[in-house]
Write a structure and sequence with these properties.
CATH superfamily: Nucleic acid-binding proteins
CATH architecture: Beta Barrel
Number of strands: 5
Protein name: Small ribosomal subunit protein uS17
Strand content: over 45%
Structural class: mainly beta
CATH class: Mainly Beta
Organism: Paracoccus alkenifer
Number of domains: 1
Largest sheet: 5 strands, mixed, barrel
Shape: globular
Distance between the termini: 36 Å
GO molecular function, one term: rRNA binding
Order of helices and strands: EEEEEH
Oligomer: single chain
CATH topology: OB fold (Dihydrolipoamide Acetyltransferase, E2P)
Strand order of the largest sheet: 1-2-3-5-4
Pfam families: Ribosomal_S17
Radius of gyration: 15 Å
Number of helices: 1
Subunit structure: Part of the 30S ribosomal subunit.
Length: 87
């Protein structure tokens, strides 16, 4: 089964090696027939404590690391976007 990859914004970096990522999704409501925004927070492993509040990151599913941590931070999207813009 493939691992899910989600993109969101870091809302907290206060815990050691852990960041809280807010992932927002948009979908069309079946009855109201309008676009609805729904958000959920995930706790992800950040080994080097390199991500700060406000960073846009991608997270990937993994085996459970603790009671609430089941995700690992892949990359910082704002940094990679800046590198490609310079090149």
């Amino acid at each position: 089964m493939p691992r899910r990859i989600l993109q969101g914004k870091v809302t907290s970096d206060k815990n050691a090696q852990t960041v809280t990522v807010l992932v927002e999704r948009r979908f069309k409501h079946p009855l109201m027939d309008k676009i609805v925004r729904s958000s959920k927070k995930y706790r992800a492993h950040d080994a080097e404590n390199q991500f700060k509040v406000g960073d846009t990151v991608r997270i990937i599913e993994c085996a459970p690391m603790s009671k609430t941590k089941r995700w690992i931070v892949l990359t910082d999207n704002s940094a990679t976007a800046g590198e490609t813009a310079e090149a």
